[in-house]
């Protein structure tokens, strides 16, 4: 039995897909055209953020804020131990070091006590500078952003929310993708 039948999904929306592709081709602007602007505006309204910037993929959406913040060699970025490879990969691409943090046994989101311990360990070692946290929202469940943002504020850390596994999820009246300093998602 096929778990995910992408062909059947595509067939249900084939006419709409073809029409959307035709609009882009007819417009002739494949980058930053009106369809991209429309998408960004609709996603910002849906998530409840002021801005959305479309990227080629979710990996780029995680990488760009790291580069923008100047994160690089000698920096530590805290990531959950249970995540897609790209969450840690983007940290390595900046030449910073990912520091894996254990996850909560019930939600599989980053564990707050383990995050505190990891930050304390990195500071005590003195080899790396703590710079950012990339919490991952999983299975539609937001990480504990009240605690994460309090830690980030206290420690001067950037929070790059990876909401790729929780688009449409919410907590405390906010949508996943709107909690961090920067939010990211993916539609893979």
Short key terms for the protein model shown above:
2 domains, 6 helices, five-stranded parallel sheet, 188 residues, two-stranded antiparallel sheet, globular, 15% strand, Aspartate Aminotransferase, domain 2, alpha/beta
How would you describe what is shown here?
- The protein is an alpha/beta fold and 188 residues long.
- The chain has two domains: 6-47; 58-184, Aspartate Aminotransferase, domain 2.
- 43% of the residues lie in helices and 15% in strands.
- The chain is built from six helices and seven strands.
- The chain has helices at 6-27, 34-47, 58-68, 85-93, 112-125, 145-155; strands at residues 75-80, 97-101, 129-133, 158-162, 170-171, 174-175, 182-184.
- A five-stranded parallel β-sheet has the order 2-1-3-4-7, with helices on both faces. It has a two-stranded antiparallel ribbon with strand order 5-6.
- Helix 3 runs parallel beside helix 4 (85-93).
- The longest helix has 22 residues, at 6-27.
- The two termini are 22 Å apart.
What's the short version?
With 188 residues, this protein is α/β, with parallel strands linked by helices.
Give the helices and strands, then pairings.
Blueprint: H1 6-27, H2 34-47, H3 58-68, E1 75-80, H4 85-93, E2 97-101, H5 112-125, E3 129-133, H6 145-155, E4 158-162, E5 170-171, E6 174-175, E7 182-184
Parallel strand pairs: 1-2, 1-3, 3-4, 4-7
Antiparallel strand pairs: 5-6
Helix pairs in contact: 3-4
